[in-house]
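From the methods appendix. Each design record in this collection lists the tokenized structure first, followed by the designed amino acid sequence. Records were kept in a plain field format so they could be parsed without special tools. The example shown here is representative of the layout used throughout.

RECORD:
FOLD TOKENS (576 positions):
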């Protein structure tokens, strides 16, 4: 190899190793390991810092979300009704109002409806696919829709109503309830309307609800019902308003008192070994057939007896004369007058009496399979009862005394007498105040609102309108329906409730007319509310109201099924 080549090769080798390799001493190795450890610690520190920062962010995020979620739950939108954001406290006001109202109406009878308020409502079935929580949610949503729809309409119409008296009455009722329950007003309010309820919040809800009610009443009062509408409705529903007079005789079948198959099995004769003999299927069937034959024979005998009576009837007198000989149940009244179809039992009798082909003097025998009897019936007349109704004002002073179990009978009697005397004196004082004043209907109404203890009328001047005969307590009823009664008559009347200062306003329309008028007005108001709330959408973005989402799922399922069916039909049509 030439020197030139050696030089070129050496230069080439020198690219990789221009300097001679240095030998590593112990010190160098020690320093290298220290640097590597420092690098590892630095990387570890950076990694820990990154992980710590992430964890910190997660903690802050979770705590922040919990705070936000809790804040939203209390102060944010719980559900949206139309254009209105409803907070949880307001929703719970209507939710618990529904529970309170149901309990106030049914009390301990709620258990018969399958409801136990001491247990979770979402674990108790109201009906298939619906719990009691769903039911009260549904009621709350319905109330919210109506209240907001009515208040929106009231505002648009420029309707004004001072609800301060209603709010004050509510606040007073809370104070009274709290005192009776030995609780603070704040705790009583929360126990009644939810844990987020405060007096200021609930007062606002009461005010809004009162305005909605007042506006609804104003619309109802302005809703006119014409004579023609009443007449047309009567013609279409005569069976609901007409009355009939008729005679009836019940002839019950003498049903055999046979034991049931189950009872016969347990009392079957013992065998020689002392074991109870079990009836065979054939023996059971034979017993059932024997029992059925005996029952049919009893019904046949009752039918023959009824037919026998029927053949002898020629008029009302003959029916009355035969009644004692054939009736098996004299507790059943012979003559029925002014009977409504809905009150007649059994239903077969009512259907026959209200048949449009019925004529005076018609007779028949009707089977009552449920009661194991036959009825012999004589039709007398069908008519529209023209009984009048009346309007009256009153001021009630209750005479009940407060007694305790520790009191003797004599002490209780004395307390009752004293309470009665005090009530009578107070009624007389109020009556005297009226007579010594303006002595007008308006002045009487003012005294009623100030003094009457009848919560059903003391907010409208003690007025009851369109009162029907028999609707009120006996002596109250007798006074207002006295033939000599005339507008402006006054008197003090005693009933089992106490003393009533009376003011007779005058006659009203006939009962049938008033009933139809009320029905038509109710129908119109239901239609009004339906139309008013039709476009008011309820949005539950947070999933608080289960039944709404169940309804949405069912709707989507129906829609999907319909779409699939339509697609299948189109495909089948195309194949053809």
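DESIGN:
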């Amino acid at each position: 190899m030439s020197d030139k080549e050696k030089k070129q090769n050496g230069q080439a080798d020198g690219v990789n190793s221009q300097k001679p390799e240095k030998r590593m001493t112990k010190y160098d190795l020690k320093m290298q390991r220290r640097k590597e450890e420092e690098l590892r610690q630095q990387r570890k520190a950076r990694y820990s810092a990154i992980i710590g920062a992430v964890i910190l962010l997660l903690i802050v995020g979770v705590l922040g979300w919990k705070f936000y979620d809790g804040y939203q739950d209390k102060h944010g939108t719980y559900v949206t009704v139309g254009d209105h954001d409803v907070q949880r406290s307001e929703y719970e006001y209507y939710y618990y109002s529904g529970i309170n109202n149901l309990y106030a109406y049914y009390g301990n009878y709620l258990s018969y409806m399958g409801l136990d308020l001491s247990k979770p409502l979402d674990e108790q079935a109201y009906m298939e696919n619906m719990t009691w929580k769903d039911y009260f949610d549904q009621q709350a949503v319905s109330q919210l829709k109506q209240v907001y729809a009515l208040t929106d309409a009231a505002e648009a119409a420029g309707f004004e109503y001072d609800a301060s008296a209603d709010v004050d009455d509510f606040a007073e009722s809370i104070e009274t309830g709290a005192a009776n329950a030995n609780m603070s007003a704040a705790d009583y309010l929360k126990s009644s309307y939810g844990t987020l309820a405060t007096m200021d919040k609930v007062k606002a809800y009461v005010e809004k609800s009162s305005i909605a009610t007042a506006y609804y009443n104003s619309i109802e009062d302005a809703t006119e019902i014409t004579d023609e509408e009443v007449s047309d409705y009567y013609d279409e529903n005569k069976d609901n308003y007409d009355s009939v007079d008729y005679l009836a005789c019940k002839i019950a079948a003498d049903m055999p008192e046979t034991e049931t198959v189950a009872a016969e099995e347990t009392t079957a004769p013992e065998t020689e070994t002392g074991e109870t003999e079990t009836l065979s299927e054939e023996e059971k069937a034979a017993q059932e057939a024997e029992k059925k034959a005996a029952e049919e024979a009893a019904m046949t005998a009752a039918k023959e007896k009824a037919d026998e009576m029927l053949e002898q009837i020629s008029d009302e007198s003959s029916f009355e004369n035969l009644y004692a000989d054939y009736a098996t149940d004299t507790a059943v009244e012979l003559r029925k007058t002014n009977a409504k179809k809905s009150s007649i039992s059994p239903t077969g009798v009512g259907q026959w009496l209200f048949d449009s082909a019925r004529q005076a003097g018609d007779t028949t025998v009707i089977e009552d399979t449920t009661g194991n009897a036959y009825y012999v019936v004589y039709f007398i007349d069908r008519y529209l009862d023209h009984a009048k109704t009346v309007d009256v004002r009153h001021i009630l002073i209750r005479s009940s005394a407060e007694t305790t179990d520790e009191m003797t009978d004599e002490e209780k009697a004395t307390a009752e007498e004293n309470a009665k005397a005090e009530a009578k004196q107070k009624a007389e004082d109020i009556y005297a105040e009226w007579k010594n004043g303006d002595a007008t209907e308006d002045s009487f109404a003012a005294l009623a609102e100030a003094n009457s203890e009848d919560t059903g009328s003391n907010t409208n001047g003690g007025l009851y309108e369109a009162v029907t005969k028999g609707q009120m307590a006996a002596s109250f009823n007798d006074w207002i329906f006295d033939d000599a009664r005339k507008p402006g008559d006054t008197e003090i009347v005693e009933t089992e409730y106490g003393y009533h200062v009376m003011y007779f306003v005058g006659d009203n329309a006939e009962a049938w007319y008033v009933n139809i008028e009320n029905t038509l007005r109710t129908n119109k108001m239901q239609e009004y509310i339906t139309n008013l709330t039709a476009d008011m959408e309820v949005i539950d973005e947070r999933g608080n109201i289960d039944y709404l989402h169940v309804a949405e799922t069912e709707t989507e399922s129906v829609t999907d099924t319909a779409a699939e069916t339509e697609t299948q039909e189109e495909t089948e049509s195309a194949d053809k």
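APPENDIX NOTE: The first helix runs from residue 3 to 14.
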